[in-house]
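Reviewer 2 asked us to include a model.

Predict the structure of this chain.
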Amino acid sequence: MRYLFSTLFSLAGLLQLSAQPMSVFQAVKAPIEQLFDGMRASDSTQVRAAFLPGAGMYTAVADKTGEAVLRAGSLERFVQSVGQAPKGALDEQIWSYDIRIDGLLATAWTDYTFFYNGELSHCGTNAFELFKTAEGWKISHITDTRNREGCRTEAPDHAAEIGQLLDNWHRAAATADAAAFFGGMHEEGIYLGTDASERWLRDELREWAAFAFEREVAWDFRPYSRQLYFSKDGKTAWFEELLDTKNMGTCRGSGVLALDDEGWRIRHYDLSLMVPNERMDKVQEALKD
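Predicted model (structure tokens):
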């Protein structure tokens, strides 16, 4: 493989990260957290203060015949029920936030699991609409879904999940396990090698590397010093890692992963040679030969 001095600075468009400062996102989250803290405390006053007067409450469900129904609720009845519940009985755990903001309007999608008296009740998604008032952000509308199967009962450890995926991915190459290696990549995933010509979609890489996976070891890159970062909604991650390789010395790998219904999968991986600055001139001269 020839030298390719490559970088991964195109993440802004790929990840669609918001330019909003973190404090703005925290301000939007505040009434949502106030709502659920108030539910756990059975504090109807705290819960009411999180909403605009007359806020809408709906549940998207299928009725007994299987027909889709948007069932309307009542903010007043909900607030009253919170005040009548024993403290700690109403426990809605939020696993993720996807917040979008435009001026005075914000939306927030949250994955949740609801527990009643410590027992699993149901899970689903909350879709919040919020409006920025002179007093701060208030909830103007909630629509939720409710399911009883496949409910999460504890917060996910995405960093550990990704670390295990990447370690297994490198191990799959070292043991020539093609199914595990390519299974760790999204079908639209991209792999960039160290040669300028080496840009493959996953299945193109599978075809090109077929000879390598017929050996006992396809290639053996041993990762260390990995750094991991997450988008604000927690569904996109990017990383950098150093690699100990037999034939190329120390390399750097960097990439992007996305979370979907099948879990975390690699969407982009960039393999780069590491060249000390003081040796760059010699490397450039060698490349001219």
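The chain has two domains: 22-145, 157-288. Residues 1-18 have pLDDT under 50 and may be disordered. We have added this to the supplementary material.
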